[in-house]
Amino acid sequence: MTRDIKAGLDALVSRYGLSAVARDRLGRLLDALVGDPLAPTSVREPGKALDDHLADALVALDLPEVHGARSLADLGAGAGVPGLPLAIARPELETILVESSGRKCAFMAAIVSELGLERVQVAHARAEELGRSAFDLVTVRALASPAVVAEYAAPLLAVGGTLVAWRGARDPQAELEGERAALELGLTVRSPLQVMPYRGAQHRHLHLMSKVRETPPRFPRRPGAAAKRPLGR
Predict the structure, then answer these.
(1) Hey, what's the torsion of the CAs at 82, 83, 87, 88, to 10 degrees?
(2) Which of the four CATH numbers 3.40.50.150, 1.10.3720.10, 3.90.1280.20, 3.40.50.261 does domain 56-228 have?
């Protein structure tokens, strides 16, 4: 690990007040993401991985909803981002990483074991297959449109829980459809927050939806229905 990468990790630790244990685990996660040929990511340059994977995930720690959560479901977890960095930063969180690809699940399970993350589970499943649950927090990055993401998340959230979705440049039409879907699902939409996870980051937003009432019992629909017939159109 180069001096610049070490300094970048130290800056993240300082920014969010993380422990030495968390710093060590974040460094080992970064090493796996850039060095393991089985890592399901195309970002292999350490500095870019530090920014796009670790810093981009940890920016959610600025949200009080993340600090107050006791349980987290990360949907479409892929290589484990943002779920793994958040679980490392908040080791008391009961976390489940949900991913439909067995290859990606195998990578995440190996990392979870290597880092000793006792409160993190990996679920080889689609979001709809989890049924209904009561998570305080659901996270999603680069998975689907706001309307589809809302439908995936709503049945999994407890009333009072929050969906946090990472998105890039704003899309007014997609956001409108997301608001319409949210109304049907028992969610309310908050104004997107522009964030700066690292110097030079552009068009980064966190989209939040809060669960204010129970989601209708017809949700979740069968796997694939949310993407094929999105709500809110």
Answers:
(1) -50
(2) 3.40.50.150
